[in-house]
Design goal:
Elements lengths: L7 H19 L10 H23 L4 H30 L2 H13 L5 H8 L15 H20 L3 H22 L4 H6 L5 H20 L8 H14 L10 H19 L4 H5 L3 H8 L1 H19 L5 H27 L7 H24 L12 H5 L11 H6 L5 E3 L10 E6 L1 H4 L2 H10 L3 E5 L16 H13 L2 E7 L9 H13 L3 E5 L10 H9 L11 H19 L7 E4 L2 H4 L8 E2 L2 E2 L9 H5 L2 H13 L1
Parallel strand pairs: 2-3, 2-4, 4-5, 5-6
Antiparallel strand pairs: 1-3, 7-8
Helix pairs in contact: 1-2, 1-13, 1-14, 2-9, 2-11, 3-4, 3-14, 3-15, 3-16, 4-16, 5-6, 6-7, 7-9, 9-11, 10-11, 14-15, 20-27, 22-24
Length: 631
């Protein structure tokens, strides 16, 4: 087997993968499973790396230093070009919060740790278009697997059997780990290397299988596998959507389909489907697939950042045309000349260029981060409004706690004192999360401990989804009792359409019958016009800065139905066990609900309070903490 032979069909598989991803992002609809193209890329990468380097590294003909320099020469030039232009556009058009987020992901690029940044920011599909470099998470995982591959070669270079055993065992553990973590943290399984190893390993293992089959001389019998593989890949793109679990059927099928095609290509290159895979336009897309992947996402994201909405189909197609042209130009004018050593021809030059580029990228990112998104560009009165999105907590439960106790349903928020025997549990969605720092302060001042539910589950909705099922609430109550908790405070962004009286009564019954008291916070004023970012944009565009809050009469009308349902649910129980907390008493004392203090807004979006806004609710919650001490 000629390990350095160019296999044109591999580029066609890459073309299928990248077109699946691009179609998913730009078109959606029938391409609902197109994001699986990244999984196909990972499997192809494992196959190609094994094919190109495994025997050379094992025999000593090729050294790890050469391996990493080759990867830098192949991947870094196009990446740095995209980073350069993306940074320029972000600096010119992004507001401070978007620019700050961009800078964090930019700073991680030279170290290939950006998957950790995006993992910290949330789910892949959550606010995706607000993150122009989101797609580079896969590059980080790929570089990390290269490092792991190098470690394996150092350890097992002369132990071929042990290497295969290690790959098989690593694949198995990777799948098991992903299956265990996925129900609790899908984003961890999606973004992180340990749960992606099996996809690369699949490519490596089936390269070894193809090598064995060739030696047996039975490759012609496997030609039909390429048809089956291609059919499977079509199913993964058109038969699944973003709600598919990972690792699950879609990811498994994608890897199987990919290796069936590659296996048939390697052992039976003359079969019919391989002829289709050699069609010129398809192979060309495969050749520029890396650049197309890099270029396709930033235009979509910057459109969203500038105009505040998804680009329609027509605009998306035009942006993808731009991405294809950019990918072609960067391939012919940047990538190929560097790969062919027409410039930066020596290893020392490409290494120095990579180090210099990395330093420049990191330095600029550090400047943006230290200046809070270059917020000084804007008038002083607008800065608090533009900074409001940063005035909130970052992670629901501490990362260390989540890593140590991944199955815990509640987590401690404040430090326990010597006399902290009493505990209070904050239960709810992101509205509960936004109050944890303020309520932790009250708890500490009264000598109590504050806990928070680790899942974004709303009271009254337990049992309506797998993530927030009835068993979860049972576990919450059991852990609460074990932690000395006597009081539960339920806070959520109550939605009148989904608010269920029966669901509320059922959930409150479970909690109260377990010996815990329940206090429910009513709805906060919410409106798109309350978003400080929107108000700042309006002011930038020439309108007077709006500093008013919502009219109290509008808030009362808005919350009337929700308050009625909440009070009706609580009326089913003894007033000694349940309480209704009215945020309007603190926020809406006159004709308008309060919006800012000393020029600093109480909201960081249309319905969530900043740290400053949350403090306004202290008088509402203090009686609950005081009564908890008396029990």
């Amino acid at each position: 087997m000629n390990h350095n032979r160019y296999v044109v069909e591999i580029d066609s598989v890459r073309a299928f993968a990248v077109l699946s991803v691009v179609s998913f992002h730009a078109i959606g609809g029938v391409f609902a499973g197109g994001f699986i193209g990244v999984d196909i890329f990972f499997t192809v990468s494992g196959y190609v790396i094994a094919r190109r380097y495994l025997h050379g590294l094992r025999s000593g003909e090729f050294h790890l230093r050469d391996f990493f320099l080759a990867r830098i020469r192949r991947l870094a030039p196009a990446l740095f070009l995209v980073l350069l232009l993306s940074t320029l556009v972000a600096t010119l058009f992004a507001l401070p919060d978007n620019l700050l987020s961009f800078a964090y992901s930019l700073a991680a690029q030279p170290f290939y740790f950006q998957n950790f940044v995006f993992w910290h920011e949330g789910d892949y599909f959550e606010r995706a278009l607000s993150r122009p470099l989101l797609h580079t998470w896969s590059l980080a995982v790929e570089e990390q697997i290269y490092f792991l591959f190098a470690v394996c070669m150092l350890v097992f270079r002369r132990r071929w059997t042990l290497l295969i055993v290690a790959i098989v065992l690593g694949s198995f553990l990777s799948i098991v780990l992903g299956s265990v973590i996925e129900p609790r943290s899908p984003k961890t399984v999606f973004f992180m290397l340990p749960t992606r190893i099996w996809q690369f390993s699949t490519g490596i293992l089936f390269y070894l299988v193809s090598h064995w089959i060739l030696n047996k001389g039975v490759g012609h019998k496997l030609a039909p596998l390429s048809f089956l593989g291609f059919a499977i890949l079509l199913v993964t793109v058109f038969g699944f959507d973003k709600n598919s679990t990972f690792p699950g059927q879609q990811a498994m099928l994608a890897c199987i389909g990919t290796i069936l095609i590659l296996l048939a290509v390697e052992v039976s290159p003359s079969n019919l489907i391989n002829g289709w895979l050699r069609v010129g336009p398809i192979t060309y897309v495969g050749r520029v697939s890396y650049g197309l992947y890099l270029w396709h996402w930033p235009p979509l994201a910057f459109w969203y950042i500038e105009f505040g909405s998804d680009p329609g189909l027509g605009v998306s197609l035009l942006l993808m045309l731009f991405a294809f042209v950019a990918a072609s130009l960067s391939f012919h004018l940047v990538e190929q000349p560097i790969r062919e050593r027409k410039f930066l021809n020596s290893d020392s030059k490409i290494l120095r260029a990579f180090i210099l580029g990395s330093l420049l990228v990191f330095s600029y990112a550090a400047i943006v981060i230290s200046s809070n998104g270059l917020i000084q560009r804007y008038p002083s009165e607008l800065r608090p409004y533009l900074d409001a999105p940063n005035q909130r907590g970052q992670f629901r439960c501490g990362k260390l706690f989540a890593a140590i106790k991944p199955n815990a349903q509640i987590c401690p928020i404040n430090e326990a004192s010597k006399h902290s025997e009493k505990g209070i549990l904050l239960l709810g969605d992101s509205h509960a999360d936004m109050l944890k720092e303020t309520l932790a302060t009250i708890a500490s001042e009264t000598g109590q401990r504050l806990f928070l539910t680790s899942r974004n589950c709303e009271l009254g909705q337990y049992g309506n989804s797998e993530f927030c099922n009835e068993y979860v609430l049972t576990q919450v109550v059991e852990e609460a009792k074990e932690s000395g908790i006597s009081q539960v405070i339920a806070v959520s962004f109550w939605d009148e359409k989904s608010l269920s009286l029966n669901g509320l009564v059922s959930d409150i019954s479970l909690v109260v019958e377990s010996g815990l008291n329940v206090a429910v916070l009513g709805p906060l004023p919410f409106d798109l016009e309350l978003d400080p970012r929107k108000r700042a944009i309006d002011a930038i565009n020439g309108l007077p800065l709006n500093r008013k809050g919502m009219e109290k009469s509008k808030y009362l009308m808005q919350s009337k139905g929700i308050v009625s349902t909440l009070r009706q649910a609580l009326s089913e129980f003894s007033t000694n066990n349940v309480h209704f907390l009215d945020p309007g008493e603190a926020l809406c004392k006159r004709h308008y609900c309060s919006y800012e203090k000393d020029g600093k807004p109480y909201y960081f979006d249309s319905n969530h309070l900043t740290f400053l806004g949350a403090k306004e609710l202290i008088p509402v919650f203090s009686p609950i903490f005081e009564s908890s001490l008396e029990e």
